[in-house]
Amino acid sequence: MSAKILALDTATENCSVALQVDDKVYVRSEVAPRDHTKKILPMVDEVLKEAGLTLADLDALAFGRGPGSFTGVRIGIGIAQGLAFGADLPMIGVSTLEAMAQGSYRKQGTEHVACAIDARMSEIYWGRFARQEDGTWTSVDAECVIPPAVLAEQCPSDEREWCTAGTGWEAYQEELAQLKLTRKQGEILFPDAEDIVYLAQFEFAKGNTVDAEEASPTYLRDTVAWKKLPGRE
Fold first, then answer.
1. pLDDT digit string, tens, across residues 162-176
2. pLDDT of residue 58
3. What pLDDT, in 10s, does the model give residues 52-78?
4. CA 208, CA 194: separation in Å to the nearest integer?
């Protein structure tokens, strides 16, 4: 029996919530780049009401830990921590890049996914993932933020076919066309809480949870994030 886990994500333009109870998943998702703070809590209320549960009934709270928009990641983790504190729930951070890989498998059945999120400033958040027999994913490349032209120079050739995921592929078509990878067009542009809650089940089963005060984001571009903090300009 799976754990009762609520997941939320606001790391990119997509705002999403998912609640898994046994084999049933309740989902809300909307591309709303400037309205995350307005939409995320009503979405949480809706899925809990649909499932007939309260936060106190849950086993854990999962969140998209990034990479993604600095503001979006910060909003997501802040709201998730507030909910977890109030209900005394352990937390599980899930990579937004890995969530897109799982989304690609859910949509297209692809087991090798190359994820690229437009990171602005002529860079992308990059990661490649290979699906394992047990349904988990192995990271082929360490997640990084990198100029796409540099990635094209450094990424080794690979005979496997890679499904693309994320906004970076469209934003930097010319540069990423130089990659020595066989690619097929994917359908996933953004991470979604539906895939975060799936991945969180594996982490919960392994005991990989943290207390709310220990939950932390993944920015990758830490120096830029540090400069944006109040008083650190």
1. 999 999 999 999 999
2. 98
3. 999 999 999 999 999 999 999 999 999
4. 19
> Cα dist. 4→32, 91, 124 in Å?
27, 12, 34
Q: Tell me which of 3.30.420.40, 3.40.50.300, 3.30.1050.10, 3.30.2350.10 is the CATH number of domain 97-185.
A: 3.30.420.40
Q: Which residues contact 42 (CB under 8 A, 6 or more apart)?
A: none
Contact 200, 36 (CB under 8 A): no
Distance from C-alpha of 61 to C-alpha of 105, rounded to nearest angstrom: 23
Residue intervals in the chain for CATH 3.30.420.40: 5-95+190-214, 97-185
pLDDT < 50 positions in the chain = 223-233
Q: What is the dihedral of CA 186, 189, 68, 114, to 10 degrees?
A: 0
Does this model's pTM top 0.90? My answer is yes
**What does the pLDDT read at residue 222?**
61
Contact 113, 129 (CB under 8 A): yes
The DSSP line for 152-206 is HHHSPPEEEEEEEESTHHHHTHHHHTTSSEEEE--S--S--HHHHHHHHHHHHHT
DSSP 14-36: EEEEEEEETTEEEEEEEE-TT-H
Q: How far is Cα 33 from Cα 10, in angstroms, rounded to an integer?
A: 9
Q: Among all chains, which residue has been given the structure tokens 């594996």?
A: 202
